[in-house]
Write a structure and sequence with these properties.
By secondary structure, the protein is of the alpha/beta class. It has eleven helices and twelve strands. Helix 4 crosses helix 5.
Length: about 280
Amino acid sequence: MNLVPKINKIIETALNEDVADGDVTTLSTVKPNDNFFGEFLSRQDGVVSGLEVASLVFNTLDKNVRFSIKKNDGEKIKIGEIIATVRGSGRALLSGERVALNFLQRMSGISTTTSKFVDAVQGTKAKILDTRKTAPGIRLLDKLAVSLGGGVNHREGLYDMVLIKENHIEASGSISEAVSRVRNGKYKHLVVEVEVKNILELKETIDLEVDRILLDNMNLEDMTKSVRIVNGKVPLEASGNVTLANVKDVAYTGVDFISVGALTHSVKAMDISFLLNSQFEGRNS
């Protein structure tokens, strides 16, 4: 699927928010025909992502700007490495700098965190999933960053998969009734997952032939017991209070998936700087 049109809409919104009808400082201090060179520099180790998005930011402002990627999206980088260079209109470079950095830093932060979780469960069959706990309006980029960090995307939104959670069960009266309503409704063709809180609910759900069962906030003992009871009949997803400190223990219970809200809801932006060299291309007198 071509994501560029959707990403362009996100970029246009971000530029409108930041630049609006003009970057008054840059318009006042930089001459129209001045062309400069800039470098994006990593200030920490991590996994970079968002370079293609940053490139689109500058090209939205000026199609003649040349953005050169030195490291690939999803690649591990070291502190001090140049990850990209940009050259062209000084006005475009300075007006796009912050928006490009905001995308780069957030996406790289997500990819870096995701990579740590993926590395932590190496040697198990568990896959790390994201959640819907993303920044409003930029979920596409948050989830893209997760995948670039080695994680797997869960559902995109409320429209592409049925996930029956605690409140849906309460509203329907029971797990069985909730699943029955789905099976008899217009969305029966979609993947169906059911959230369970305990072994009793798990046993009720197994016989309903759903596509996946989510073990919500279960302790390690109950997760292990759930894996044994299900015995491979239905893929199991663990969720709730998963951290880097405990994710390996969760993976060793034998679950198939581990969803981690912290990948996107508690993002620590990666430290990346942008340095302009006004002499490289030469300023006009």
